[in-house]
Design goal:
The complex is a heterodimer of chains A (283) and B (184).
Chain A (H helix, E strand, L loop, with lengths): L6 H4 L5 H10 L5 H19 L1 H4 L18 H4 L7 H5 L24 H4 L22 H4 L27 H4 L15 H4 L3 H17 L4 H14 L6 H14 L3 H14 L4 H10 L2
Helix pairs in contact in A: 11-12, 12-13, 13-14, 14-15
Chain B lengths: L13 H18 L4 H17 L9 H20 L24 H14 L2 H12 L4 H8 L3 H35 L1
Helix pairs in contact in B: 1-2, 1-3, 2-3, 3-6, 5-7, 6-7
Classes of the chains: A mainly alpha (283), B mainly alpha (184).
Chain lengths: 283, 184
């Protein structure tokens, strides 16, 4: 059964129909959007890849280990991931007993979280922890889950040295947004262990803010304010900063967005979110 | 069962799927009325969903699958956002710049295209965008939307009529505005 001829083939060159359809067909996304998605799919690929083996290890949660921000899976390697599904379902945490990455849960509910939880929530093989990841490997690297085993709890590398500009005490300039200067992440195994209850609380607080980030960014910003007040130096401060940057942009608060952007750069000087932050800062 | 060949799963990896079809999905979402930033976000969702179901995507039917996911995601997103429906919009748009080269500006053309699409009923718009702009086949559209091919063809026919009428009206409005301007 053949299809009818398309309007673009039928319309006279230069006619209104021709120009309108061509304009639509020639629009392209920017490269950053593709990179973010590739990184997120790295995590998604991991979900698919480990679904069988890791099922036993996945009590709950969605792995967001190599999320879009930093493509951190390569750096974090093995580890259970506290998931975005957990954010929306009471902040349960998964603990992967040696398996690399937790298996999938309600990904749809927390898909956007891949964009921001990404790098932060990697933990060692046995414990559920969180660590900020500095490096931004190629998305392809992020797609490679190390499923086989995790003999030793591995820890994400220390964050890149904060950019000089970004290291300014942001909170001093932003009385309305109680940001905290980024807290260097400890990289010893012991230091990377976070009490599940604290991480759960952080996840829950951020989940609420995230849920509002699109529909009511102003309220999301207030939620983030509470988050930073409650968890100064928290393990998810980086993710909160990224969320703040995006919510402030949506809310039409460029000054706040720039402050969050500086904070993002202080945590992580490379990667798609850093690019976004620089773009906001006009760098 | 002898004689029945199960369709093969796509041989594309997750990364290949994204690289091959990201522009397509993103553009679809834009034509569904999402802003560039929202299209970024929702495209990401679409691919994460698709990559979780990679085994279920048949070889050669990747675009149909992605189209289905993208159209549903866009509809859900718009619903969640409480975007204004087409009934709340004015019935006509105009090529508001009277100059003869107004449409040469691609951005203006795109804005006008989106205005016109916004006025179309969603079911027609969905088929129109995918066939006329993204060049999916009617079979792919039918598969993606889980509707009979005949229904897709019928929607396309109606969508074309709708689209062409609106473009004509827009041109008339421009011509009228142009004449009015020169009379002054």
């Amino acid at each position: 059964m053949t299809d009818p001829e398309r309007l673009l083939q039928r319309a006279a060159r230069g006619s209104a129909v021709d120009q309108l359809l061509r304009a639509g067909a020639e629009e392209r996304p920017d490269g950053a959007a593709l990179r973010r998605t590739l990184a997120a799919v790295g995590a998604g690929g991991a979900l698919v890849g480990v679904a069988g083996g890791a099922q036993a290890a996945s009590a709950a949660g969605v792995s967001t280990g190599s999320g879009a921000f930093a493509g951190a899976a390569g750096a974090g390697a093995s580890g259970a991931a506290a998931g975005s599904g957990a954010l929306s379902s009471g902040a349960a945490l998964s603990s992967g007993a040696g398996a690399s990455g937790a298996a999938a849960g309600k990904a749809t509910a927390g898909l956007l979280l891949l964009k921001w939880v990404g790098a932060g929530v990697l933990a060692g093989g046995v414990v559920t922890g969180a660590a900020h990841v500095a490096s931004a490997p190629e998305p392809q690297q992020a797609a490679a889950p190390s499923v086989a085993r995790a003999p030793e709890p591995r820890v994400a590398p220390a964050p890149a040295p904060p950019r000089e500009q970004a290291a300014q005490p942001i909170q001093a300039k932003a009385p309305d947004v109680p940001h905290r200067a980024p807290v260097p992440v400890e990289t010893s195994p012991a230091a990377s262990v976070v009490a599940p209850s604290q991480l759960s609380a952080e996840l829950a607080a951020l989940g609420r803010a995230k849920a509002l980030a699109v529909s009511n960014p102003g309220l999301a910003l207030r939620g983030l304010e509470s988050y930073f007040a409650k968890f100064p130096g928290g393990k998810l401060n980086y993710e909160a900063s990224v969320l703040g940057m995006q919510a402030a942009r949506r809310a039409g608060q460029p000054d706040v967005a720039r402050r969050y952007a500086r904070q993002v750069l202080a945590f992580q000087a490379a990667g798609p979110q850093a690019d976004q932050a620089r773009s906001l800062l006009g760098q | 069962m002898p004689g029945v060949v199960a369709p093969q799963a796509t041989g594309l990896s997750a990364q290949e799927l994204v690289r091959s079809h990201f522009d397509f999905v993103w553009r679809l979402l834009r034509r569904f009325g999402l802003s560039p930033g929202d299209a970024d976000d929702v495209a990401q969702q679409v691919f994460v969903v698709a990559c979780r179901k990679l085994e279920a995507i048949h070889a050669g039917r990747e675009r149909a699958f992605l189209f289905g996911v993208a159209s549903r995601s866009a509809a859900r997103f718009r619903r969640d956002q409480g975007r204004r429906g087409e009934e709340e919009l004015s019935e006509d748009v105009s090529l508001d710049a009277p100059g003869p080269d107004a449409l040469v500006d691609q951005r203006r053309a795109r804005a006008l295209l989106d205005e016109i699409l916004e006025l179309m009923p969603l079911d027609l718009r969905c088929v129109f965008i995918s066939f006329e702009i993204e060049e999916l086949s009617l079979s792919e559209i039918a598969e993606g939307l889980a509707i009979p091919r005949g229904t897709a063809a019928s929607r396309l026919r109606r969508a074309r009529e709708d689209f062409e009428q609106r473009v004509k009206r827009a041109e008339l409005t421009r011509a009228h505005a142009s004449r009015g301007g020169s009379d002054d």
